[in-house]
Amino acid sequence: MSHFYIRCPNCGPRACSEFSYNGEVRPLADPAASEAAEIDRLWLRRNANGLQRERWFHAAGCRRFVTITRDTRTNIIVAQPGEPAGDVATHA
Amino acid sequence: MSGLFRGRTWWKRSELKKSYDVVIIGGGGHGMGTAYYLAKNFGITNVAVLEKNYIGAGGTGRNTTIIRSNYRTPEGIRFYERSMELFRGLSQELDINMMLSKLGHFTLAHTDSSVRVQRERGETNRLLGVDSKLIGREEIADLCPELNMSMDVAYPIQAALYHPPGSVLRHDAVVWGYATGAYHKGVHIHQGVEVTGIRKDASGKCIGVDTSEGPIDAGVVVSAVAGWTTQVCDMAGVRTPITNHPLQAFVTEPVKPMLHKILVSANLHVYVSQTDRGEFLIGSEIEPYTTYNLRSTFSFVQHSVANALDLVPQLARLKMMRQWTGYCDMTPDYSPIMGETGVENFYLDAGWGTWGFKATAVCGETMAQMAATGKTPELIAPFRLSRFADEQMVPEKAAASVSH
């Protein structure tokens, strides 16, 4: 695993290997959405080459979910948990 | 005698034309294979392969060179078995020694659930005529005395799926062979030409590509770019479930032949084989997060060395020579995405995750058929992009990945 630190609001800066990756931020389920839209939400991914808003789970720590912005080209985190997301495109 | 030492023309730079019948994006094994079979099986030679880097720069040159067909689903088994058939005749056909070594392939099971999965694979394999069966500890120790069969490790070996046809071969020779074969049949190979856009007409039909060298008209466009699929599909307005994960591997210094089987451990997330040059080639599972960064990491070495030594402790004093990383364009069901995309005349050969190299030959054959006839070949029909919406997944996680 590449090495970067995620600043957990409960535990402070921790190695990313303590966290499990929960994928890019996706829209929440919309009960009024069409079936086609729901299928897209479930399966399709942006798979960004650049800034990505994503979720991590502190599996080997306090077991809290956090949301960060990471540059997938460099693995540098540009927005730690709680920081403003910045100008990131998401489908959410 | 003089023929022995004659120079060989591989491929040369061709002039980039304004129009081709078929444009293939990606000069890896899959793209070159598609070009070769288009020329050979369909006589279509007005074909260009566009590669933004050099031939075989991506997954083709980064994989661990294993080919096998002991998959889990009937769809997967038939598909990869056809690839094995093609690979067996390829050195002759393309006149390049691919050094195919039929070593035999072990998928080691260390837990009850893993034994159950391997048994299921073995039974399905044999139903479809693939030589593969579950064997117990005694037979494992007999066939591969180098393996550590000790009970004093965290995960003792319980059983293995044994697949005698499992082989390794030179991956570079595969792409060079296809490229040379295609070039001598008239295909244009363009290195250093990057596709920057997919051109469509008013009806939404694909009519060509924009490149760093200007626009090119094309009757059919095939994308065979693996790790860059999302970027090429974005240009065409096609969305996929693909995510990019890094996969790392390393080789040790070369030593005399010692290990004569290909070892894969589902539970230890590691695979080990000895190459014809004597190096031990050790790979691991994909990393869990997505990235476009190819930096290799120490934590990978640490964990794969620990697990490899659990299997073959004799390797402990070998020096590591080099380490590398590749992109894996993973799909949710661990099967590829091939064929129609919803954009007319734009076909996809993608979702190759950790299982792309062994499919090179059959991908070339089937994608050539797809591009030449416009009809989806039966072998790849189960891998259509629309299967996710229809909930017709082809679940291969148990056979395609190390991590299950």
Secondary-structure map:
The complex is a heterodimer of chains A (92) and B (404).
Chain A: E1 5-8, E2 12-15, E3 20-24, H1 35-43, E4 51-57, E5 65-71, E6 76-79
Antiparallel strand pairs in A: 1-2, 3-4, 4-5, 5-6
Chain B: E1 19-25, H1 29-42, E2 47-51, E3 66-67, H2 74-88, H3 90-94, E4 101-102, E5 105-109, H4 112-127, E6 133-135, H5 137-143, E7 159-163, E8 167-168, H6 171-184, E9 188-191, E10 195-200, E11 206-211, E12 214-223, H7 229-236, E13 243-252, E14 262-265, E15 270-274, E16 280-284, H8 298-311, E17 320-330, E18 337-340, E19 346-350, H9 360-373, H10 397-400
Parallel strand pairs in B: 1-2, 1-12, 2-9, 5-14, 12-19
Antiparallel strand pairs in B: 3-8, 4-8, 5-7, 6-7, 10-11, 11-12, 13-16, 13-17, 14-15, 15-16, 18-19
Helix pairs in contact in B: 1-6, 1-9, 2-9
Descriptive notes:
The complex is a heterodimer of chains A (92) and B (404). Chain A is 10% helix and 34% strand. Chain A is mainly beta. Chain A has a single domain (5-79), classed as Folate-binding superfamily (Folate-binding fold). In chain A, the strands form two sheets. A four-stranded antiparallel β-sheet of chain A has the order 3-4-5-6, with no helix packed on it. Chain B folds into two domains: 17-64 and 171-241 and 332-400, 3-Layer(bba) Sandwich (FAD/NAD(P)-binding domain); 101-165 and 244-330, D-Amino Acid Oxidase, subunit A, domain 2 (D-Amino Acid Oxidase, Chain A, domain 2, 2-Layer Sandwich). Chain B has ten helices and 19 strands. In chain B, 27% of the residues lie in helices and 25% in strands. The longest helix of chain B has 16 residues, at 112-127. With 404 residues, chain B is of the alpha+beta class. In chain B, a hairpin with a 4-residue loop joins strand 14 (262-265) and strand 15. Classes of the chains: A mainly beta (92), B alpha+beta (404). The interface between A and B is medium-sized, with 25 and 24 residues.
